UniProtKB/TrEMBL annotation:
This is Haloacetate dehalogenase H-1. It holds the Pfam family Abhydrolase_6. PANTHER family: AB HYDROLASE SUPERFAMILY PROTEIN YCLE (PTHR43798:SF31), MONOACYLGLYCEROL LIPASE (PTHR43798). It is an enzyme of class 3 (hydrolase). GO terms for molecular function: haloacetate dehalogenase activity. Its EC number is 3.8.1.3. Keywords: Hydrolase. One of its GO terms (cellular component) is membrane. Residues 23-264 form the AB hydrolase-1 domain. It comes from Pseudosulfitobacter pseudonitzschiae. InterPro entries: AB_hydrolase_1 (IPR000073), AB_hydrolase_fold (IPR029058), AB_hydrolase_sf (IPR050266).
């Protein structure tokens, strides 16, 4: 199990597989690097790196939940690249990971080869935030992975035609046995406090514009409650060269192994090479 130590002493989990052009995969708010397991087989010509943010998955939880911020998460990502002696990398950013990608474009622009946004943009739909806050940091009342798999389609919304086996895999990934006959979260529940008290308000549209000259890709779920059509259209107007695909029958967030998503990512990577 690969770990590295941040400048403030936390041990963070990461994976590093394959060879070739480095792709750093940054996950969503309460998620982990395991989110990228579906797309990984389609990226076997590349060096794929994932990271569990502090307070998530197999990484250390921070004693101070106020450190669960985009600025510190982005700093951790830079320190992981330094740890791996990677000068430049492409970024696939899922949800919050896309915001971190734009932060990285400000912190270390020379190290970012391009960004693929998985259902996220410079503006987050307020309704999506409400939906997330309804369950973020709340210990599940369900007691088995089978129960979790049964409720995930309704909890997430926008997904149609996803086989039960995929929902079971999602349940087993995002909920762990609490040792008391129930399930628990795979992240620090104090992440809710961090989001509720977040004071950062950077101009992400300016950050997005500052990615000029770098290949971009946007994978947009048709049923997303995070990335609305207005924001996606504005992104496309500002960057008409951006690879774009809209995924029917998907909500937030797409799995990334959908054929159209895989095609878009490969088109984007061809631009980087």
């Amino acid at each position: 199990m690969a770990k590295f130590t941040t400048s403030d002493g936390l041990s963070l989990h990461y994976t590093d597989s394959g060879s070739g052009l480095p792709i750093l995969c940054l996950s969503g708010l309460g998620r982990t690097g395991a989110d990228f397991r579906y797309v990984a087989p389609y990226l076997d010509d590349y060096r794929v790196i994932t990271m569990d943010y502090r307070g998530r998955g197999q990484s250390d939880f921070d004693k101070d939940w106020r450190n669960y911020t985009l600025a510190i998460e982005s700093r951790d990502a830079v320190e992981l690249l330094d740890h791996l002696d990677i000068d430049r990398a492409a970024i696939i950013g899922t949800s919050r990971g896309g915001l971190n990608a734009m932060m990285l474009g400000q912190i270390v622009p020379e190290r970012i080869l391009g960004v693929a946004f998985n259902d996220v943009g410079p503006e987050i739909d307020p309704e999506g935030i409400k939906d997330i806050m309804a369950y973020l940091g709340v210990k599940p009342s369900i007691r088995t992975h089978a129960e979790a798999a049964a409720i995930l389609p309704d909890l997430l919304g926008g997904f149609i035609g996803v086989p039960p086996a995929r929902w079971m895999e999602e349940a087993e990934t995002h909920f762990v046995d609490d040792g008391k006959g129930g399930l628990n979260l795979t992240y620090d529940a104090h992440l809710r406090d961090a989001v509720a008290n977040e004071t950062e308000s950077p101009d992400f549209w300016a950050f997005f514009d500052d990615l000029a000259g770098k290949p971009l890709c946007l994978i947009h779920a048709a049923g997303s409650d995070i990335l609305n059509d207005k924001t996606a259209q504005q992104m496309r107007r500002r960057r008409p060269d951006m690879i774009y695909t809209n995924l029917p029958d998907r909500g937030h967030i797409p799995f990334l192994d959908e054929p159209a998503a895989v095609t878009a990512l490969k088109q984007w990577l061809d631009l980087i090479q």
